[in-house]
Amino acid sequence: MLLPNERGTAPGQWIEESGAVAMLLPGPPHELEAMFERQCLPRLARIAPKQVIRTLFWRVAGMGESDLDQLIAPVYKKYQNPATTILAAAGEIQIHLRARCDTAAEGDALLAEVAGPMELLLGDRLYSRNGDPMEAIVGQLLLRNHATVSVAESATGGMLGERLSAVPGSSAYFVGGFITYNDGMKQSLLGVPLPLLEEHGAVSREAAEAMAMGARRRTGSTYALSITGVAGPDGGSEKSPVGTMYVGLADAAGTHVVHRQYLGDRQRIRTFVVQLALDTLRRRITGRL
Prior knowledge:
Layout: E1 2-3, E2 12-17, E3 20-24, H1 29-47, E4 52-60, H2 65-76, E5 83-89, E6 92-101, H3 104-122, E7 126-128, H4 134-144, E8 149-153, H5 159-165, E9 174-179, H6 183-190, H7 194-200, H8 205-219, E10 223-229, E11 244-251, E12 254-261, H9 266-285
Parallel strand pairs: 8-9, 8-10
Antiparallel strand pairs: 1-2, 2-3, 4-6, 4-7, 5-6, 10-11, 11-12
Helix pairs in contact: 2-3, 4-9
């Protein structure tokens, strides 16, 4: 059976044979999508069993994939429906729950039955319940608390600022930042004392703290985040091998520095530490740090 193409010249085809269906559709997305929605879906509805699919999309920070699976597997392995999928990404884990039921109410009830115990186990490591990324969650917290944030970046060269500013409306809480890639810029833009850099080095707890304090002092933001480290593949030392990263946070209550040693290539290391910086701010705002 030919399927008319309302947005192009190439028709599609609907072929049924021995209980199987094949759909041949044009390649351009705007033609394919329109043909599928208008020509194929009504035909599929007549032959496919009616079914409702309900989903949950969670994001978890602060733990690895194997640790997370070990924690929640005793819950989700009891169920074939909903199906649980765990996906690892840079600095976070995604959990997808998918229930297939006859009605939306049944699907929601089944998801709640499985999700409730898992949520208790995950605690504050579960930071997103609707799939929003970390930068969006942090932005919502800042808005809710009428707070602002600035950044001071060395090893990441602007990646943290890019994540924050990627959220629409982020100008309401992200005031800006500094890319201080060498010691001179750290001194002139952030006011990091030269004796501190000479004694401890730019990749140090002390430098991260001073950078965060300088960014907050220069911008007047509620919170300031800093990142300094060795992203590689070269530049490491016995004291600070490749993958050494420090995140500094400054606010009215004082300062806090987090140190991590990451494995992997340059992009992976930088992506992980940016996620860590955002999560550090999230925990500070919510009173968990």
